[in-house]
Write a structure and sequence with these properties.
Elements (H helix, E strand, L loop, with lengths): L4 E5 L6 H7 L2 E2 L3 E3 L16 E14 L2 E10 L6 E5 L7 H6 L3 E9 L4 E9 L5 E10 L6 E10 L4 E10 L18 E9 L3 E8 L5 E10 L2 E9 L2 E10 L5 E11 L8 H11 L3 H17 L3 E3 L2 H17 L29 H9 L3 H13 L1 H10 L22 E4 L4 E4 L7 H17 L2 H22 L1 E3 L4 E3 L25 H20 L2 H11 L3 H13 L4 E2 L2 E2 L13 H8 L5 H7 L17 H5 L2 H10 L8 H9 L8 H11 L4 H16 L13 H15 L2 E4 L2 E4 L9 E8 L2 E9 L2 E6 L7 E5 L2 E5 L4 E5 L15
Parallel strand pairs: 26-30
Antiparallel strand pairs: 1-7, 2-3, 3-4, 4-5, 6-11, 7-8, 8-9, 9-10, 10-17, 11-16, 12-13, 13-14, 14-17, 15-16, 18-27, 19-20, 21-22, 23-24, 25-26, 27-28, 28-29, 29-32, 30-31
Bound molecules: beta-D-glucopyranose (BGC).
Beta-D-glucopyranose binds next to loops.
Protein name: Trehalose/maltose hydrolase-like predicted phosphorylase
Family: Belongs to the glycosyl hydrolase 65 family.
Keywords: Glycosidase, Glycosyltransferase, Hydrolase, Transferase
Amino acid sequence: MSRWLLAYEGYDPRAEGVREALCTLGNGYFATRGAQPESAADGVHYPGTYIAGCYDRLPSDVAGHTVSNEDLVNAPNWLPLTIRVEEGPWFRPAEAAARGGMASYRQELDLRRGVLTRLIRFTDEEGRTIRMAQRRIVSMEDPHVAAMETTIVPENWSGRLEIRSALDGRVTNAGVARYRLLNGAHLVPGAEGEREPESMWLSCRTAASGIDIAVAARTRVDAARGRTASKERGWIAQDIEVEAEEGVPVTVEKVAAVFTSRDRAIEECTEAALTRVERAAGFDELLERHILAWGRLWRRCQLSVDREDVQRVLNLHMFHLLQTVSEHTVDLDVGVPARGLHGEAYRGHVFWDELFVLPFFSIRFPEAARALLLYRWRRLPEARWAARRAGHRGAMYPWQSGADGREETQRLHLNPRSGRWLPDHSHLQRHVGLAVAHNVWRFYEATGDEEFLAEYGAEMLLEIARFFADAAVYNRALDRYEIRGVMGPDEYHDGYPGRAVPGLDNNGYTNVLTVWVLSRALEVLALLPGDRREELRERLALTREEIARMEDVSRKMRVVFHDGVLSQFEGYEDLEELDWDAYRRRYGDIRRLDRILEAEGDSTNRYKASKQADALMLFFLLTGAEIDTLLARLGHPPDPGLIERTIAYYLPRTSHGSSLSSLVYAWLMAHVDGEEAWRLFVDTLHGDVDDGRRGTTAEGIHLGAMAGTVNLVQRCYAGITTRGSVLNLDPRLPAGIGELRLGLRYRGHWGVDLSCRRDRLRVELRPGVASPIEVACGGRTVTIEPGGAWETPLSEGRLPPPSPGPAP
Ligand code: BGC
């Protein structure tokens, strides 16, 4: 096993979906699943290609309702390529395997170079054996280009070999079984054609959003004897004939280009795609430049641990993060889809998962993180409109966001277990706006980008704060503000048992984080230079009364406690206890307890049972000191055991039905129980690579959990927090790791190297860096000059306890 290789031996139809998702190749502009070029979508294979930000909306009729859904569109498939000998059947691995003709099949993903390789040996029905090696890239250098090189060796025969290379625009969005009843025909075929001597093209348009998409391909075969084209609406192929000789390799090179009418620096997308493939270099040169581009990315992602199994999965996670968001994303107007550009689950929508993804980029690719925040900033008008329609000021961000930032959450969802379509209230997760505000502030802290804060960040922060200050209702009897009728992150609870109106009151996470956001909004006002502050206040028509209200709410928000712990929401303590053991015995995997109970005619709303961390998210996002400050601001006396008690209370009551949950718990447990934390970390780490999510990886990777594991290493194990202008370090190496190394970009300092062993922590600032940095560790703050280093001893991977003072 190598740190940089994901390898699969043998052809296994049951595993194909997961392999396709995990072997997806992309560059932040578009991505193509690691599907076989020989097979169209057929229930086993699902070749999907997704262009960042390319959405389309269609109506569908379900359960007597017309619903409208926006999808990240499955774009035309550029992959199709297969072969046949002497007019025999076209080669399909599934068919060869089924008749016992597949001698060997190996698929490898080289994470460092971004190359997907397949090595196949098969024998056809006439006993002719063929060896095939295929390498594929989606160029990290030129975001519009993909390429595939196939080498075919006739082992024991000579004769006529035909190669079919095609472009398929007849694809639909059909990658998720649960969505099958929904309309997925997003592509309206345009035209298709050939251009001499080697190219073909295909164009189409998305049904409602009217985005033109063009794909072109140039297929080159050495010693080609003839080429014939065939086409039908939405599909074009070139059949290329070769006289193959025993033992002599035939090389086929397919270079494809993808453009849309949204692209810049083009006149028209079909011509752009054709020109790009015609001018493209050969495969080897494209590959070389692609590898160089990946090299540049990896140099900015230095993170290593001395455990090969862990490192390999961390590399896989960083690989998929960089394929979803890269420097090519910077110029696009896109957010980060929860399931990457890797599949169709959640329809490519953008959730609060950014919260988990952004920290990865902020200290490595701040320009990409900034671009993701600008996606939210551009959708402020829509968020303001949503707030207005809900009767509030400020900006109310949608739980699920797509093209224009309106609420994209489905109003009905299918429980596959019961077959019932159910009302979906998850749009009540107003906390998504708090996540946007949190991201703005943490980005500012990590980068020190004052220009961003003044131009865009402050506006988002203030508008979000304004919404929550306005949505909070004053309860005179308690002299407290309350936020009613919302949902927290835990999706098992969308209302009270017996109450007709959905929503919960005083969700602890929402209320406390609102106080944090309000405090930051007030801080930002104080931070901005006077003229810019006045300019902004004027532009937003932010009155003194509103600022006073923010201040007041931030001091009088209601936070509910029960049994000495933070309540998930008001009334949580009245819910029934679930018999967890009985459900585990009966069902085994109870991560989707909501579906199990609904199918039984029951509801998770009745129980003290959570899908994922909710109140505990606070301890994940904020330090203990920050929580103390917030609670003190609200007039609650310090409660030293609160965090530990709250973790101990909710952990056994959580099913981890979301991939984000075990991640959060791993972070929390690291402060309580190192071994349990490590177990949870490893569990999250293997969620996708071992498809621990019970088949859901095939529908797309879990990007938030992937990013979260990397963040856990840097934030928890290396103990890095960026507060103010000081880099804070508080390492906690788990027993499973002997050494951890990280290279970071911190507030414009490109070149902070950190190494953490069980016995010491060392921070270096590379020579040539513009100015010194300040590091705080174990109660001391030190300044490190460029070219300088600082070391401190650790005991078992942690800072030793402070030495006792002199005896009296
Ligand atoms: C989780 C949400 C998450 C979404 C997208 C859901 O299962 O409950 O917290 O945002 O998946 O990843």
